[in-house]
Specification:
Length: about 525
């Protein structure tokens, strides 16, 4: 038993070997002189910073720092440590892996790789799924409005503008294409920036006078521009601008996260249904879009939902085509924005797979009901409209210099005949659109394997498909006969009794196979290398 309440040469404390909020490599903790551990934990007394111990017990503090280094080196992780000092002698009471925020988890993992403590594979395991949820949740600091000005520049072109800071012309154009306002911030502008300057809501430059390039161009367009703002420092590489003590970033991203993503060995693609989602995925390291759910696009406005309802409720072919004609521009516009955001990367677009109750609140459409390819086969004009929107958008942005790699995915296929029907229809539409627009481009047509029968006859379906993606949600539900709607009622019992080892809707074990996988199981995907795998 060590006693920290033996006078001013004794004390107790709790610390983390790194900052659990930010991940900074610096001891982070609290210390109380002449106290026991429960005094810190129970909040009986207000503890002080660890610097207190450094000042009043320097030898014990030095030993504590050395011990922290030893423990981190041994456990290869950030540690949570409790200790007591009894009459200047340090006693280490216990240590355990320290809890941390998502931001800290990523930084600690990356830093420990750079320090040689862990390898990249171990670093990835240090970041849990909930850490990423935290990291990608935007946080706001609410500050009272003040009349304090941050900086002063020249009124190159009068007006006012509000928007998200961007640091290159291309980003300004991308944001504008998505209907979002951007402020283009540059050290100085050049003729190559004209497209972004036109797209931006306003322009801010660190250098330049009333007759600078930015000033002249902005005045000609009547666009707000502040030039020669010498109080700002623009860092294009880090995408930050510093104004006095204020630092403004282009994105709420994390340099450490970008480094961690580069540790991956798997190709990671995103679920993204809108241009905004696509841009966010791109900025966070996605290597393309693995699933774009076209039904989700129709919730962007009341007009879209009404058009979908007209299509669903149509009695005649003419009524249905009229509703689809209303939907075509919306789809084409969304695909244009997505293709621009994913310039040079593949985009897999799933054709309409709507549970009808999503659009008609009083409608019931069972999981095994009228959806997926069954819709496209029953109403070929629906597949034709979506394929036309995809190909028109692809050609339009391709003509503007964007590299487009569209992959069209037919959902809920159970037989090769179903896929063959839809593939033929899509290729006819592609040929028609390319003839109308005077150009062609490469594309793929594939399917999502989400029905057990499709998995069993995959060799036959493969003759019609350019690619497969395994939809593990429906595939698992149909294989086990479970429904995600009520599985929680009995699954805990199955797990506790050992009937199942893992939640089949969340855990997947597969041998090496080059396929796409989407669904909740992806978060805990475990790849096993077969000892009999050919070289």
């Amino acid at each position: 038993m060590a006693f920290g309440n033996m006078g001013n040469t004794s004390g107790t404390g709790v610390l983390f070997t790194r900052n659990p909020s930010t991940g900074e490599k610096k001891l982070y903790g609290e210390f109380l002189v002449n106290a026991q551990g429960e005094d810190v934990v129970a909040g009986i007394r207000t503890p002080e910073d660890l610097d207190t111990m450094k000042n009043c017990m320097p030898e014990a503090y030095k030993e504590l720092v050395e011990n922290c280094e030893i423990l981190e080196s041994h456990y290869k992780d950030m540690m949570d440590i409790e200790f007591t000092v009894q009459e200047n002698r340090l006693w280490m009471l216990q240590c355990r892996t320290g809890k941390r925020t998502g931001k800290a988890a990523v930084k600690i993992a990356v830093d420990m790789v750079n320090e040689g403590l862990v390898d990249k594979r171990s670093a990835i395991k240090m970041v849990e799924p909930q850490h990423l949820d935290q990291l990608f949740t935007l946080s706001l600091r609410i500050r009272p409005l003040t009349k304090t000005k941050l900086a002063t520049g020249l009124p190159a072109s009068p007006g006012a503008a509000v928007g998200q800071v961007v640091f290159c012309a291309d980003d300004a154009e991308t944001w504008h294409a998505q209907g979002k306002k951007a402020i283009l911030v540059r050290t100085e502008t050049s003729p190559e920036d004209v497209g972004g300057m036109h797209a931006a809501a306003g322009i801010l430059t660190a250098r330049g006078g009333m007759t600078s390039h930015a000033a002249v161009v902005a005045r000609g367009w009547g666009k707000c521009c502040v030039s020669g703002c010498s109080d700002i420092r623009v860092n294009d590489a880090e995408k930050v601008v510093v104004i006095g003590n204020t630092l403004i970033r282009e994105e709420n991203g994390s340099p450490s996260m970008e480094t961690l993503v580069n540790f991956r060995r798997l190709k990671v693609m995103a679920n993204a249904d809108t241009p905004e989602d696509a841009l966010t995925a791109r900025n966070n390291g996605a290597q393309g879009i693995g699933l774009c759910r076209t039904e989700h696009m129709f919730f962007a406005s009341d007009d879209r939902i009404k058009s979908v309802r007209k299509m669903i409720m149509a009695v005649t072919l003419e009524q249905r085509k009229a509703a689809l004609d209303l939907l075509l521009p919306y789809q084409r516009s969304d695909f244009e924005g997505i293709f621009r955001a994913m310039d040079g990367l593949p985009v897999t677009i799933r054709l309409l797979d709507p549970p009808l109750h999503e659009f008609l609140p009083e409608e019931v459409n069972p999981m095994l009901g009228f959806r997926g390819c069954r819709l496209g086969i029953s109403y070929p004009e629906l597949t034709e409209m979506q394929a036309r929107a995809i190909f028109q958008a692809a050609v339009l942005v391709s003509n503007q210099g964007v590299k487009v790699f569209p992959e069209i995915m037919v959902p809920l296929v159970g037989t090769p005949q179903e896929l063959g029907h839809q593939v033929s229809l899509i290729r006819i539409v592609a040929k028609t659109v390319f003839a109308e627009m005077g150009t062609t481009l490469s594309y793929k047509v594939g399917t999502m394997i989400e029905i057990p029968r499709a998995a069993l006859v995959a060799d036959e379906i493969a003759k019609e498909a350019d690619f497969f993606s395994f939809g593990t949600n429906d595939l698992t539900q149909m294989t086990f006969g479970y429904s995600r709607d009520d599985v929680a009622k009995f699954l805990p019992i199955y797990l506790s009794n050992g009937i199942l080892q893992n939640d089949p809707l969340r855990c997947l074990i597969k041998e090496d196979l080059k396929v796409g996988i989407c669904g909740e199981t992806v978060g805990s995907l475990l790849l096993l290398h077969s000892s009999q795998r050919p070289d």
